[in-house]
Amino acid sequence: MKKWYDDLIASRNHTVIFGTTGSGKSTTLQFLINVLEEHYARYGLKPIVLDWCGEHYSKYGIKYPVISYAAVREYLPSVLAASVIGSSGIATAAAVRDLIYEVDTFSRLIECLQLHASRDIGAKAAIDRLKALMYADVLTDVELEPEYYIGVIDLSVIKDVEARRLTMALLLAVIYNFIIDKKLSNVAVFIDEAFTLYRYNLQIVIEALQAVRKYNVKLFLVFQNIPVDYADELLSHNVILHRIPEPAYVELRYRRALPGNAPKLKPGEAYVYIDERAKWVHVKIPPTELRKGSVDIKSTVPTIRVKAVPSIVPVPQQAATQSTPQQPSVKFMTADEVLKMLRKQIKRGEEELEQPIPGEDIEVEVE
Ligand SMILES: Nc1ncnc2c1ncn2[C@@H]1O[C@H](COP(=O)(O)OP(=O)(O)OP(=O)(O)O)[C@@H](O)[C@H]1O
Ligand SMILES: [Mg+2]
Predict the structure, then answer these.
(1) What percent of the chain has pLDDT over 90?
(2) pLDDT band at 361 (very low <50, low <70, confident <90, very high)
(3) Separation of 194 CA from ligand 2 center, angstroms?
(4) Distance between CA 166 and CA 75 in Å, rounded?
(5) Mean pLDDT of all residues in 282-293
């Protein structure tokens, strides 16, 4: 007999998985990964798993998250801009967009942004984010084959949550780019904790959902809740509904004909809606082990390190040769003195801004 997940995987549509914390979303995701891998001959789809918590496994291995410049350059302005709160997002996009078609590597991009960073808040914001990614060891100038990404990409190796979020968005852009360039097909992309992309207005996710429909690519996206602003779009795909919080459920139940009692589902129980079946079915998903604790994975790809970036502030040469280092003074300044000093600093800063920044002559032309 045909199982619900046969129809789900064979469906022409993508799948979203909703459920509160502990409702069994990750277990369901791992179950589907296992099904694809055990029955590769039947479904012909290989998994790519963006694993936020580091709990999934795959027979194709567990990979370090690495982003290569060639695969992501077109998406850098908008993805970096979306990671900046407020109006400086526009400046960030502009600063990066001016450079990306002129430079061929992250290293060069970072060098150029450094030159602008003291005067341009966009360049400063971009460089700060790229630095966070360098600390996380995820940027490379090497061109990676799409096959690198088959299997589980363990994002939990990135401890800084903002850097992890940004890496997730960029990885999605990389995969999306490979797909529309026809370098990658016959894959199922699993994004556990896709709601971490809320910061990006989910736009990148929604675009990906719509754009890859015509390739043999299935997306499986996990959310903790049904985001009301995107409910119409997300609920138009196949749905696996675990337990969800009452308010969101009540609000959407009548709008989207959700089945009764979803807030009472036990972990591992779900309502499933598959496009081709056009009805809700109540299923019990078999318990599946998740990976516990992270594994020791290091990138085998040469990545760009922060220390390799030259400082924009020239270090005075004589400082190193000074024989008597100055003792720190313990004298406190009066408020007036502080004000005077600040005014002086501001004046000096303004004068310095008039000076051309070293290396300005290599500034690339704006299109
Ligand atoms: N299919 C299942 N059968 C039996 N028990 C399950 C099943 N799925 C989940 N559970 C139980 O619920 C617990 C939480 O599951 P899981 O980690 O998959 O939830 P989650 O929704 O991903 O939670 P989180 O929000 O923490 O990521 C599991 O440790 C297990 O005890
Ligand atoms: Mg989970």
Answers:
(1) 59
(2) very low
(3) 11
(4) 12
(5) 92
Output the domain CATH number for residue 34.
3.40.50.300
pLDDT digits (tens, 9 = 90+) for 208-241: 777 887 888 999 999 998 888 888 888 999 999 9
Sign of CA dihedral 311, 316, 318, 323: negative
- Does this model's pTM top 0.70? My answer is yes
The closest residue, in CA terms, to atom 11 on ligand 1 is: 267
Q: Which domain holds residue 170?
A: 1-317
Could you tell me if the CB of 266 is within 6 A of ligand 1?
A: no
Residue 49 lies in a domain: yes
Contact 167, 156 (CB under 8 A): no
Ligand 1 centroid distance, CA of 268 (Å): 7
- Of 4, 17, 27, 284, the one to substitute when testing ligand 1's pocket (max ligand atoms within 8 A of C-beta) is 27
For residue 191, report the distance from its CA to the centre of ligand 2, in Å.
11
pLDDT 10s digits, 175-192: 999 998 999 999 999 999
Helix or strand or coil: residue 19?
Answer: coil
Total domains in the chain come to 1
CA atoms within 13 A on the CB side of 265: 32
